[in-house]
Design a protein that fits this description.
This protein is of the alpha/beta class. It has two domains: 7-50 and 293-394, Aspartate Aminotransferase, domain 1 (Alpha-Beta Complex), CATH 3.90.1150; 75-291, Type I PLP-dependent aspartate aminotransferase-like (Major domain) (Aspartate Aminotransferase, domain 2), CATH 3.40.640.10. The chain contains 13 helices and 13 strands. It is globular, with a radius of gyration of 21 Å. The termini are far apart.
């Protein structure tokens, strides 16, 4: 390079799964040359099911319209915003104004950075769960904010310890990220938890942002923090079609909240893209209209897959909770010793990758409190999971 990169890039590394997928691709090339099966990758949570058929059909039909290929509104199609509002009312019992309280996003991951850019100044503090989604941390750092981790532990059911939070120095804290059902832990939210978060945010003047993409996966009671009275004063919620509708690659998400917050987010978003492809928005309208039978079928398959992951964890002697939601199974490792450079999770993950040809995500990726854990994704077909079980049992 003839110029140095921006200083902000010094605060972050390339996303872990971007690096790991490149490493696995190189290993697969070596394995192919040796006549070995490719690595079974149970790392990332990219649903491998098919989206709703009527969404696919709508996409194709709309793409054939010669007028569908121009720039779109920065705010999103009114039909899409109305569909998101109807979805929230039907499943979460939350009434949203589609005009002012919903902003479609190119996936909620985009929304994490855009929202951070909209509200964080240099030196502002952000409360981020440990363990939690790494993008919360990287987005804060890219904005020049200070990351303040708050502990989630098995002892508290992976909920925040509000007594400990109240004792922390909260001066300068402007934002707090939450995520339930939790990634990577699978912990389910409760109405009481959301009420405590709203109370905490209102009393301390902290914007609570609830990241909610897993609420339909293996979860009989989808919840929204926006259902809590007074939540709109201090809360935003992000959601997406990636997990609940098998549409991860489509990049269709949304953020909901009080209109004043949404306007600030739109200021940033409108500088960064020119609206989502119209046929995709129309297809999303169809997907959002799916009834409970869609989610029952989706979750029946995930339950079958989860039972195989439990068997894998039993083979490995891991401790896990059967009453979790989301696309992952989180397992505690008690029978592997760390070494000088690697946590228990990394030691076990490296051994499974090298000796069984199976990749499970080491928990350190999600924070210090994940070092003694490992995470397996449900995003693989049953024969693949059974093959992984066979390989690990042999090892």
């Amino acid at each position: 390079m003839i110029i140095p990169p921006a200083h902000r890039t010094e605060t972050v590394k390339e996303y872990y799964f971007s690096r790991k997928n490149r490493e696995i691709a190189a290993l697969n090339a070596e394995r192919a040359a040796r006549g070995l099966d490719p690595i079974i990758n149970l790392g990332i949570g990219s649903p491998n099911g098919v989206p709703p058929q009527k969404a696919i059909e709508r996409l194709g039909a709309a793409a054939r319209d010669p007028k569908a290929h121009g720039y779109q509104s920065y705010q999103g199609l009114p039909a899409l915003k109305e569909a998101f509002a109807a979805w929230y009312q039907r499943y979460y019992g939350v009434i949203l104004d589609p005009v002012g309280e919903i902003q479609p996003l190119v996936g909620s991951k985009e929304g994490i950075l855009i929202t951070s850019l909209a509200f964080l100044n240099d030196g502002d503090k952000v409360l981020i769960p440990d363990p939690g989604y790494p993008t919360y941390t990287s987005s804060a750092l890219l904005c020049g904010a200070e990351v303040v981790k708050y502990d989630l532990t098995e002892a508290t059911g992976w909920f925040p310890d509000f007594e400990a939070l109240e004792k922390q120095d909260l001066s300068g804290v402007k934002m707090m990220w939450t995520n339930y059902p939790g990634m990577p832990t699978g912990a389910k939210a409760t109405p009481e938890l959301y009420a405590k978060l709203v109370d905490f945010g209102r009393r301390h003047g902290i914007l609570i942002i609830n990241d909610n993409p897993y609420s339909f996966i293996l979860n009989e009671q989808p919840l929204s923090i926006l259902a809590v009275p007074g939540a709109r004063e201090c809360c935003l919620e992000m959601n997406s079609l990636s997990k609940a509708h098998n549409m991860a690659g489509w990049r269709i998400g949304m953020v909901a909240g009080e209109a004043d917050y949404i306007r600030e987010i739109l200021k940033v978003k409108s500088q960064m893209d020119s609206g989502m492809f119209k046929p995709m928005q129309l297809a999303a309208v169809e997907a959002l209209s799916e009834g409970p039978e869609w989610f029952r079928s989706l979750n029946d398959e995930y339950r079958r897959r989860k039972e195989i992951i439990w068997r894998i964890y039993d083979q490995l002697g891991l401790h896990y909770d059967r009453n979790t939601a989301g696309l992952f199974v989180w397992g505690r490792i008690d029978n592997v010793e760390p070494d000088a450079e690697r946590s228990r999770g990394e030691v076990l993950s490296d051994r499974l990758l090298a000796e069984a040809g199976v990749f499970l995500t080491p928990g350190f990726v999600f924070g210090r409190n994940g070092e003694n854990y490992i995470r397996a994704s449900l995003c693989a077909d049953i024969p693949v999971l059974e093959k992984a079980l066979e390989k690990i049992a042999a090892l």
